Amino acid sequence: MNANLSPNPNDPKLQALLQAVSQKLGVPAEQLKRELQAGKFDAALSGMNSTQAAAFRQAVQNPQMVEKLMSTPQAKALYAKLTGGK
To answer: To the nearest whole percent, how much of the chain has pLDDT over 70?
Structure first.
């Protein structure tokens, strides 16, 4: 995957991650998605401590990191839980 390509915003894994983050931050998923697509991270970063915010910024700038993160057993379990095992 080319690092200059943006992740597919309709990817089911990305949608599940957006839902999980939106619930944790108390920000509607669509608002979070719009802000992230526009390069605005205020809503996403507002509920994070500095370590989490730094990790988030690094992940957003590196699609391979997001892909690697989403392939972990924990992410797969979260995805299964959020989608009802689909």
So the answer is: 83
Interacting residues of 69 by C-beta distance below 8 A, sequence separation 6+:
59, 75
How is residue 35 written in tokens?
């802000």
How many helices (H) and strands (E) in the chain? 6, 0
Give all strands (DSSP E) within the chain, no chain letters: none
Residue 65: name the closest of 53, 77, 56 by CA: 56
- Asked whether the whole model's pTM tops 0.70, one would answer no
CA distance 29 to 3: 25
Packing angle of the helix pair 63-70, 12-25 (nearest 10 deg): 90
Low-confidence ranges of the chain (pLDDT < 50): 1-5
